[in-house]
Write a structure and sequence with these properties.
Blueprint lengths: L1 H8 L10 H17 L19 H24 L4
Helix pairs in contact: 2-3
Length: 83
């Protein structure tokens, strides 16, 4: 089992260190996903946020999904050598 993990680890691309570019990419994707979250069927179920037109659960879900998409973008850009 250990030899299989070591063999697979050799093919894993390098993970980039955090820098402002990574932070900007993840922040922008979070904002875009938050704007798209207002288009879901019921964005106002639960306690409402006073400033945004979404509820607290929708906001948390949008931020989590934005981070997932942002990390995918960062890893993809690192894999092709752009970051």
């Amino acid at each position: 089992m250990l030899s299989n993990l070591l063999a697979a680890a050799a093919n894993v691309p390098a993970t980039p260190a955090w820098n402002p570019t990574v932070g900007i990419i993840i922040s922008v994707t979070c904002v875009i996903i938050l704007l798209l979250s207002t288009r879901i069927e019921k964005p106002l179920v639960g306690p409402k946020l006073p400033v945004l037109p979404v509820s607290v659960p929708t906001f948390i879900a949008a931020m989590a999904f934005g981070h997932i998409i942002g990390i995918g973008i960062v890893l993809g850009l690192t894999n092709i050598g752009r970051l």
